[in-house]
Specification:
The structure is a homotetramer. In chain A, strands 1-19-17-11-13-15-16-5-18 form a nine-stranded mixed beta sheet, with helices on both faces. A two-stranded antiparallel sheet of chain A has the order 2-4. In chain A, strand 9 and strand 10 (134-135) form a beta hairpin. In chain A, 23% of the residues lie in helices and 22% in strands. In chain A, 65% of the residues are buried. Chain A is α/β, with parallel strands linked by helices. Chain A is built from nine helices and 19 strands. The radius of gyration of chain A is 20 Å and the shape is globular. Chains A, B, C, D: This is Kynurenine formamidase.
């Protein structure tokens, strides 16, 4: 519970933007409900040339984790051609396995990932995340098949004429409106908004002081109303922290996560690679595409690794 | 190496159907090259109503593995709301991780999964699968973004008027042709063929004597030529063994795997759930759809878990 | 919490046998306190010939787990000689890793493993086991170095003239006294009591219907007072269930665990292999030995895998 | 294979010190054969007061690994009291699991860990380490029960009057002889030699630039003859690199490992904590003790985590 008698700015924002009950009391997927069949069919038409652009980070030991709280994927071979020597017909085969944090690289947070005051999205009590089972409500397994929709890239560093936004830069609704105007695209209900900060460059450069710790650019509380007004289905970022970090809400660490996930019911993505996409969009001037970002239907999960694809 | 002086029927078939060199000497994805941008764009148009049908098995401890060679997914919580008690703003959060065989449930085999006589697809030597690294060639990471195409379901048990094909039933090219005719659909180059045996029913029934061991229905060597002639991009099955099991090729265990993956360069899928899809297709008479079946871009992997979706 | 108004037989026993506070309010290791330095020094003298007898189950995929709640150890190579080819001085090397349930094979339960009514041993509240951290009190890490002491085998099937005790046989204090008399040995304070049921034979036979499920022989509530009176430091069993299973305490599953661990503060071991030891003791008539059974000092763990050794 | 025509200093040393065949052609444990039953019985007498001194590093995420090649232990709860709410008799329980590199913290290297020119100890070919199985010869599982013997600490920094030896300091046979003289102890056949460099201090200080990378003090090729002459059973070090690092043998990385493990058949240990032991020995002047350092009997393993104990 929050400190007695204290009013938190983000909780006030949360109350105002709440989607609780909007899709029924049993709803577990929030704004992904906006990805209706009609939305999917319309999004599919955006695959005009069929060009695929990969938005995912490779899953391997060179990921951004430092070996503490979350681990980078550990991929091991459980069988190799060396193990099949001597089969009569010369058969060779290989098998492998993985150990990974579900939040270790490009990933979605489910609506059981973050909340406050004892509740997750739609009044799900904190105890619904059971230590020995996982998220018995708001699991990513329920949400997974809704992550195909229209994708729209808003490229804020391009708008600002920089490669990467400044440290701790807060992306505002004004920025979002200006980017729409500059790019000639409009964010619509049910879209998966891909919001570029340029931060992925630091990952590509191997700079762990910038990607994985330290100040980052991202949306603040102010932009949440814009996301809610536009009724986006999901928001994917190309940084580690998702939101502007550190926050200006004193005593809080990730207030934007809290309101986005718990109150708005917004599925959020982190560590997406928008570098190739940004170049492509700048070249053809088309900032919309068919976005396929389904992950894995892992029962009771609070998130999922994903290798998303933009198809133009 | 194979036994000296012995001629193997499947190796002969492999020679005849080989795609080695067809897409260049450095090609690592085989028939997935047939999923051209044009193919993707055309496939997208099949998402007519935007209806989504999930083709994946849930990833959890109730999977089909028996705890020996491959393990079912082990999903554990690494952080829960219980661990965040006392944060000033009442924040709660949860994180999780997974340990899983990449071939444990619904999955794709990469072109480094099976071969014979010291080689994988396109002349990649067996030593390219390095025990400590994985598949340095023919990895699934290279193939992943091509697994979006036109999907076509051929429902063989429906053709035969049964719920599930008989044990060890071999699906033939005649069956495939008849199913096309009966269903009014034609398999085309670049398609992801979804071939139903009905076997998934045994998994749903929890019958491990039928799903995971014992005789299974599937294609034999004879059908491989049909797959090659039609130039399908990938073949997904709803059983465990993929191919008719046990095989009639004495001294061999999985000869169809060998030829399909190594010689044709065909990406194959196992343990797909076609039950809902089959009902839907029977109802509307439409056996084609936009198939999205990208998995995870795991570096050097010889396969990937996947939660595929059919969109009609 | 227990059902209101109901009195449970094992809770009454627990109250009577409680060791809470005996070694101070902050004590986390219970009866292991009885393994004093003097006890260790005296135990060492039992290593008369230096003969080693291995009491552990091999840690591998052929363990007793069935792939559900707990998994058998998954051991994979992360590096092999194949990966070092080409080093100038011809160096080859290999590395490996493991994934395992800490309770999957021969193991100790720490005093944070089982309790009731919201408390573990010595008044540690259930919340001291934090989902994201583990046992912040009563961890095995604290207990580990005390698991070297005098070991005594009581061979109950031998006493009864059978290979294996009958299903659900309850080992009583009378049995324990008779075994002492028959074997010419006396259990003393601080001993690690190794209590044989013969059940390990079923594991060696690969009979999972007998080892891992189904009725088992073991101590019941009645024997707990004997263990408490004799002040044993730890109790190791050669079966899966530890206690007589199923219990006669209706509505309870493992009441002996509860009282032993929570009230007496007794460290208990499961799935020990006493087969070789039993043969050896029958031959030389010596049922006491230096017991070394330290496991791994895993921070915050509620148990540990162990490969114990008896030295005579 | 080594470079043609080149003579390597360490291979020459290896030839001279070789123990191949000494304990038979099928021997898999090398110098651990020197831990005879008589040796164990004599060692047990060194447990004079029964005082235990823990020599192990805690297994947890704060270990020395950096998340690349080897991972620190990942310990997760698979069941907690939160998951047992509602059982009639109020039972609570907890279970846990671990993922760990077997070489991640305090550990033994088996005789299948390092070799050269295609062979491990006693002529075992490199192919005996099978990627999908592990060490089919020279596994740690075979060696484990021999790791109880007389332990002797030689405290080289104390001899030199420093806290920690200088970077890349090479411990010589002269140092070993002088330490024996100064400490009044003699290393004997079958001993587990615990050789202190003081390096563990850097781990305790959290200085990863000194522990886990960078130059380290340790024995060089010269000292190997001393180890062989004294017929020690095992050699445990308190640093990361085991040997003096970097080596002066150009073109080689870990030549001392190679000769010790492959030619001498010496089981070696790394990352032991000798800090408390060193203080204790300095206080009572007794540098010998009962050493118990059995790890886990993991089938086909090339090493084992261990929490060793010195008992004086």
């Amino acid at each position: 519970m929050t400190e007695a008698g204290k009013t938190w700015a983000h909780h006030e924002v949360g109350k105002k933007l709440s989607n609780w009950g909007r899709w029924g009391d049993d709803d577990e997927i929030g704004t992904l409900n906006l990805v209706t069949p009609e939305k999917v069919a319309a999004a599919a038409l955006l695959a005009r040339t069929g060009k695929r652009i990969d938005l995912g980070m490779a899953f391997d030991k060179n990921g951004p984790q430092d070996g503490g709280f979350r681990i980078n994927p550990v991929h091991t071979m459980t069988w190799t051609p060396l193990d099949t020597a001597g089969l009569p017909d010369g058969m060779i085969s290989a098998d492998d396995m993985i150990v990974m944090g579900l939040q270790c690289a490009t990933q979605w947070d489910s609506l059981a990932h973050v909340g406050y005051d004892g509740y997750f999205y739609n009044g799900v009590p904190s105890t619904a995340v059971r230590p020995g089972i996982g998220a018995t409500k708001n699991s990513f397994a329920t949400a997974n098949d809704h992550l195909i929709s229209r994708g729209v890239l808003l490229d804020i560093p391009r708008l600002k004429g920089v490669d990467v936004l400044p440290d701790s830069y807060e992306i505002t609704s004004a920025d979002l409106n200006e980017a729409e105007a500059a790019q000639g695209v409009t964010v619509q209900p049910g879209d998966v908004l891909c919001l570029r900060t340029g931060w992925y460059k630091y990952f590509l450069d191997g700079d762990k002081s910038k990607f994985g710790s330290g100040p980052e650019a991202g949306p603040g509380l102010e932009a949440l109303e814009w996301f809610r007004d536009r009724d986006i289905a999901a928001l994917a970022m190309d940084n580690w922290a998702f939101e502007r970090y550190p926050t200006v809400v004193e005593g809080s660490v990730i207030p934007v996560h809290q309101v986005a996930i718990r109150d708005i019911g917004l599925t959020i993505g982190e560590m997406f690679n928008f570098e190739d996409l940004a170049v492509d969009c700048a070249q053809d001037g088309v900032y919309e595409y068919l976005f396929t970002g389904t992950g894995l239907k892992i029962s009771y999960s609070v998130g999922s690794p994903v290798t998303p694809i933009a198809i133009k």
